[in-house]
Design goal:
Blueprint lengths: L9 H8 L4 E5 L4 E5 L10 E3 L5 E8 L7 E7 L10 E4 L4 E2 L8
Antiparallel strand pairs: 1-2, 1-3, 4-5, 4-6, 4-7
C-alpha cells in the first residue's frame, strides 16, 4: 500500500482559496508575476504576493542641528501619530516597491 503524498503547494492553495493573491516565478524573465488562477503545477514556484508599504515622504527638522533637515518615509498607519519635528508632506500617498528581481 502506498502512502498518499500531500500536494507540494497545499498551504498556498489554502491561502489562495481564502483570498490571498498568488505570484509565480517566471524563470525566463527572471521575475515574479501575479497570476489570477494558478494551476499549482509541481514544477512551478509560487508564493503569496508580497504586500508593499503604503505611505508618504515627509520633511523633518533634525533633532541635533536645527539648521538641518531630513526626509523619511511615513507608513500610512502612522499618519495620525505625533510626528516629532514634522514640517510638511513632500509626496502624495505612494506604494514602495522593492526590486522585482529579489525573492
Amino acid at each position: 500500500m502506498t502512502e498518499k503524498q500531500p500536494r507540494k503547494h497545499k498551504d498556498l492553495i489554502v491561502e489562495w482559496a481564502n483570498g490571498a493573491e498568488i505570484e509565480w516565478y517566471d524563470s525566463t524573465a527572471n521575475k515574479w508575476e501575479y497570476i489570477e488562477s494558478p494551476a499549482f503545477s509541481e514544477k512551478t514556484q509560487y508564493r503569496i504576493k508580497k504586500a508593499y508599504p503604503v505611505g508618504r515622504f515627509a520633511k523633518f527638522q533634525n533633532v541635533w542641528c536645527t539648521d538641518a533637515y531630513f526626509i523619511a518615509f511615513v507608513p500610512k498607519q502612522e499618519y495620525n501619530a505625533k510626528l516629532s519635528k514634522f514640517i510638511c508632506w513632500l509626496t502624495d500617498e505612494i506604494t514602495l516597491i522593492a526590486d522585482p528581481h529579489l525573492p
